[in-house]
Amino acid sequence: MGRTPNRWARDALIASARTLFAEKGLLEVRVEEITALAGTSKGAFYLHFKTKDEVFQHIVGEFLIQMRSALGCFEPVYGAEFDASTIACLEAGDMELARFMWENRDCVAMIFHGGNGAAYEGLLEQFLEGLASRTADNFRRLFETSRGLVTHISPEIVGQIVAGATYMFVRAHLRSAEKPDFDTLTTQFRDLLFFGLVCRAPASEHTP
Question: Contact at 8 Å (CB) between 168 and 124?
């Protein structure tokens, strides 16, 4: 009679693999290290997974699902005036993305390093392209349906800027144990994206 899979053992193996993959990369981690950290046997590992690659794929897949779910709550309202409430919604989404990235920085490290294996070296590019595409889609709909926005800016450029800023943010804070000031970071990014760097004089100064 075969052994019955154990949920606790599976969860422990996943958590241990996630820690080790983030620290050493996929290629450098051995199954024995995963089972030792999880407090299980090699037999228990192969009862749940065929290879360490399968665990890696599972972790990355779950991370991407959770990220999409977290960000799905911050879709802007389309077809309305582009005002402070719309900006606040977009800012909240940026803040949630930054928080999610930092809180899951071990998994983000796995994606950024591509598991240190040739088979996954395109993970980071795919991740950033997906983020850029999602952002571009949001702004394309905003440009098409909302009043108060310029119409000559390409949504793709906005998506690339957001993806690039996200990449640099994660690189800067990936190994930091100190929690970033998300409020300040997202406020500054919002001001830069929507208001630019040029000081704007009060309306009264332009009145003849």
Answer: no
**pLDDT the model gives residue 167:** 84
- At 207 the pLDDT is 45
Spatial CB neighbours of 19, under 8 Å, sequence gap ≥ 6: 37, 106
| Global pTM exceeds 0.85 | no
Domains of the chain: 58-194 (1.10.357)
Does residue 22 contact residue 110 with C-beta atoms inside 8 Å?
Answer: yes
In this structure, the dihedral spanned by the alpha carbons of residues 4, 5, 6 and 7, taken in order and rounded to 10 degrees, is -140
Please count the CA atoms within 13 angstroms of the CA of 198 that sit on its side-chain side: 3
E strand map for 15-161: none
Distances (CA, A) of 208 to 11, 198, 200, 201, 202: 69, 22, 17, 14, 13
